[in-house]
Amino acid sequence: ARRRRSVARRAIVEEGRANQADLLILSLSAAMEMFVDMYYTLKDMRARQLAHQTLNLAMIVCSALAIWKSLMVVTLSESPVVVVLSGSMEPAFHRGDILFLHMGYTPFRSGDVVVFKVADREIPIVHRVIKVHEKESGEVDLLTKGDNNAVDDRGLYPATQSWINKEHIIGRAKGYLPYIGMVTIIMNDYPMVKYVLVGLMGLFVLTTKE
Amino acid sequence: MARGPRKDASKEAGAEGAKDSTKEIATSGSKDSNESADSNSKHPKDHQEDFIPKKTCLGDSATMKRMLDDAAIKVLLDESELGYEEDTALSNVKLIVGFTGVAASLVSHVYPLSFPKNWWVLFACCAGYFICAGILQLLLSFVELESILVTRATKDASGKSTPGFTLSSHFPRYQEIYTLGITPLPKGSLALISLPKYEPSEERKVGGPPSFGPPGFGEQHWDVTKFFDDEGIFYEEKFCDELRSFFKAYESSVSKKQS
Q1: B50: which of A13, B64, B104, B233 is 20 to 30 A away, CA to CA?
Q2: Residue B115: is it exposed, middle or buried by C-beta count within 10 angstroms (0-12/13-18/19+)?
Q3: Which residues cross the membrane (chain A) (predicted)?
Q4: Which residues of B touch A208 (CB under 8 A)?
């Protein structure tokens, strides 16, 4: 009886392995067929049709660009959507959250969460304003600190600078989406993902039949 | 012994599984393309090396319509037989408007001034882009509709010129009747804007002769199951023959009405 069971078990395992191999072969052959078909579609197109499909692809890319630029126009900030990269604002914002920025017209006050860029650092920083000095000339001096940091940001400013001003500020955080920014962080860390995704999208748009 | 027959049974099951999998791979084109939206595949016929037939999944209406339309356009524009020329005015307008919009958005990206000094440039470029995209969309939704080709006016050997026409195709999703209609267009493709949407006539007499109503019009319905077999292979030559007879009948009806 034990021998019968072990033989049956071996048969099931072998069949399982055969099924896995089948699945792999099927999916690979389907992918190959798709790419071969795309090649033939592009080859058979008349020049005018190809121009129209290229225009389609360009319009899609440019509409994304135009939407980004119009967000810049409306929110008055250089980068209307940013991704939080560090954990210095926990528990309010975590690494991988998306923030929507808006410059606003109201004066800056303590408690505002601002994104600013200082002279020798490329990457903007998201921290909270803790001190505000408004001078008679209209200039404003601000001091910032991350909620999760032990000290204020004077260590991050350039050596001669103790305060930041309005021109360093990119915008105030007005809204946020949790976790979605992880996609941007992944694409930043592994640029191959970016190229592969964009390449695939381009191929699909050029060869679509609708 | 108990072991013997059972082992043989499992070996047979393994062999059958392998046979099934090879059959599955051969027809995987039709099965797998059921899942993806826009797939068709070509596989070489066994006995003809250069001729690769077109094949599609039978449920993929968009690809089928595209194949039928391409065949109709190919037959019409073929120099050796019917030799019509394409009227490219509307297509050129679309291309120019489209690439203007693309250029506007690219300018907004590469303009040398930094934010916020370039606010007005950005505003103008975005406005320009959205206007161009709007015009393109209007052209697509209200002017082009079902037309797949517009031809230029042709001059007969005797010097008589017949106006160009627009070829419209009608092939609703998941249905089997493909209709080609010819509507005369005396002023060229830009006049498409004044044409109403092409509606095929109510009674679809499939397989019947083409109908030529008012002068210059023509229409014929085909059952697509005659040109696609069970596996989805498209018999282009057969369809092209039908198309040629339709267009020749149209030409003779036009010259009859003119004379």
Answers
A1: B64
A2: middle
A3: 54-76, 192-208
A4: 38
Put simply, the answer to whether A10 touches B38 (Cβ < 8 Å) is no
Residues B54 and B66: their CA atoms lie apart, in Å, by: 12
Specify which residues B228 forms β-bridges with. B234
- Cα-flanking dihedrals φ and ψ of residue B177, to 5°? -105, 120
Taking an 8 Å cut-off on Cβ atoms, the answer to whether B28 and A204 are in contact is no
**Low-confidence winner among A4-8, A185-189, B84-88 (lowest mean pLDDT):** B84-88
Domain ranges of chain A: 2-74+196-207, 81-179
> Please, what's the largest Cα pairwise distance for chain A?
97
B55 bridge partner residues = B233
Token reading at A124: 């903007």
- Paired strand residues for A131: A143
Cβ-Cβ contacts under 8 Å, A44 against chain B = 70
Q: Who among A11, A30, A65 is closest to B105 (CB)?
A: A65
The whole-angstrom distance between A180's CA and the closest CA on chain B is 25
Strand partners, B86: B151
Catalytic site residue from A77, A97, A112, A127: A127
Distance CA A124, CA A170 (A): 8
Instruction: Output the six-digit token pair for A144.
Output: 């910032």
Nearest Cα to Cα of residue B234 among B244, B226, B242: B226
* Chain A residue numbers touching B7 (CB-CB < 8 A): 7
The 10s digit of each residue's pLDDT in B93-150 is: 889 999 999 999 998 888 887 777 888 888 999 999 999 999 998 888 877 777 777 7
In this structure, which amino acid lies at residue B126?
A: C
User: For B143, which DSSP code?
Assistant: I
**Regarding the domain delimited by A81-179, which CATH topology (the fold level of the hierarchy) does it fall under?**
Umud Fragment, subunit A (2.10.109)
Classify strands B54-55 and A169-177 as parallel, antiparallel or unpaired.
unpaired
Among B24, B23, B43, CA closest to B32: B24
Q: Taking CA atoms, what residue in A is nearest to B36?
A: A34
pTM of the model: 0.70
A62 closest CB neighbour out of B33, B65, B105:
B105
Alpha helices in chain A (DSSP H): 2-44, 47-75, 182-189, 191-206
Residue A174 burial (C-beta neighbours within 10 Å; 0-12, 13-18, 19+): middle
% helix / strand / coil in chain A, to the nearest 5?
50, 20, 35
Residue A127 annotated in active site: yes
